[in-house]
Design brief:
It is built from 12 helices and 12 strands. The chain is α/β, with parallel strands linked by helices. β11 and β12 form a beta hairpin. The chain is globular, with a radius of gyration of 23 Å. Bound molecules: pyridoxal-5'-phosphate. The site of pyridoxal-5'-phosphate has 14 residues, from α4.
């Protein structure tokens, strides 16, 4: 066929040499998928089994990241979502329907709670909240219409470690699926499926990405019926993920082990230092005995990551605690975590912990631990001089 140059802009005869092997995963972008003939066209989301149909359902780059997270967590399949929060919402919509009830821990990542109360409620889904220390006592909280149980361990901000195996055993008795927000463990320090969890969710934004430059979520399962429900929701809502973000996450993932090891050591050193300071009432770090559920952490986890909280003594006001945070130089103030930069956020925990507005959550990054401690010391001085 002879082609005008304008046609050649779109349909070229150029061929590049084949056989390129590199260590990097290629970025495959694309909305349209080209089929060899009309009889092979289809519109199904399950491309792993049925072949490529549409970029919405994934490209080789996004499917590679999904498969690698499944491999790492010991699941059979992972579905990606555009953020951790979108992953949580996918799970809710997969398991809940009008008239359902969902159980959520009191210390849950707060957008998960708001999602249940403000959005699911509008569609006739009930939610209730259980104390994270409940363990097998969760049985009393089930209702006949409980169709999903969330766990998050350790919980956001106050870091209580849940007895996930006991919760899962109780849920199994009642035939209720358990979804775990497994972000803190990066999907590796707590083996969700070995402990009875049905659905393991991660904000891949955090440790998988690892560099504060992308938003992604993952939902990993072992059960084919659960996968079918989740895949259906993702396809109906059109929750696509960017191959470029997935490529960054694939790169981030290669250094996960060394980053985690470093922040584990550094966070432990800083947490122990904080525990020795006069101003500090408690350090909420699962590897320290002062953290509620520490024994469970010891039993179930193979390590700790770089996110923990501290509570200042009651003699300090909320304003003084905020001054502590504002006086830090290396610790930046900002949400999200799991990146290379250390972060600090002041929280007011109104839930019945007695901590009030004296809580500070720290994300430990890859800076020198000596410098980070010096920075915290500076914050303490500013707080005392208030
Ligand atoms: C950050 C976070 C999420 C949400 O992730 P995004 O990608 O920011 O939407 C979910 N769960 C936990 C525990 C988180 O810390």
């Amino acid at each position: 066929m002879t082609k005008d140059w304008k046609t050649r802009l779109i349909h070229t005869d150029v061929k590049v040499p084949e056989g390129f092997e590199s260590l990097a995963s290629p970025v495959y972008r694309g909305s349209t998928v080209v089929f060899p003939n009309t009889s092979s066209t289809h519109t199904e989301w399950n491309q792993e089994e049925l072949g490529y149909a549409y970029g919405l359902h994934g490209t080789p780059t996004t499917l590679e990241l999904a498969a690698r997270i499944a491999e790492l967590e010991g699941g059979t399949r992972t579905l990606l979502a555009p953020s951790g929060l979108a992953a949580l919402a996918m799970v809710d919509l997969a398991f809940l329907t009008a008239g359902s009830h969902v159980l959520i821990p009191e210390n849950v990542y707060s957008p998960n709670r708001v999602l249940a109360m403000k959005l699911l409620g509008r569609f006739g889904i009930e939610s209730s909240f259980y104390p994270p220390e409940i363990g097998g006592g969760i049985l009393q909280h089930f209702r006949p219409n409980t169709h999903l149980l969330w766990a998050e361990s350790p919980g956001s901000i106050t870091m209580e470690v849940e007895d996930v195996p006991a919760i899962c055993a109780a849920a199994r008795e009642r035939g209720v699926p358990v979804a775990l927000d497994n972000t803190w463990s990066a999907g590796v320090l707590f083996r969700a499926f070995d402990h009875g969890v049905d659905v393991s969710v991660q904000a891949a934004t955090k440790y998988i990405g690892g560099h504060s430059d992308l938003l992604l979520g993952s939902v990993t399962v072992r059960n084919a019926a659960h996968l079918a429900r989740l895949g259906e929701v993702r396809a109906r809502l059109g929750l696509a993920v960017s191959p470029d973000d997935c490529s960054l996450a694939l790169r981030g993932m290669t250094t996960l082990a060394v980053r985690l090891k470093y922040v584990e050591q550094s966070a432990l050193e800083i947490a122990r230092w904080l525990a020795g300071q006069d101003e500090v009432q408690a350090v909420l770090h699962p590897a320290l005995e002062s953290c509620p559920g520490h024994d469970i952490w010891k039993r179930d986890f193979t390590g700790s990551s770089g996110l923990f909280s501290l509570v200042m003594k009651p003699e300090f006001s909320g304003a003084q605690v905020r001054l502590f945070v504002d006086s830090l130089e290396l610790f930046k103030i900002g949400y999200s975590w799991g990146g290379v930069a250390s972060l600090a956020v002041a929280y007011d925990v109104s839930r019945g912990t007695g901590y009030g507005d004296r809580v500070v959550r720290l994300n430990i990054g890859l800076e020198s631990t000596v410098d980070l401690i010096a920075d915290l010391e500076k914050g303490m001085r500013a707080m005392r001089g208030y």
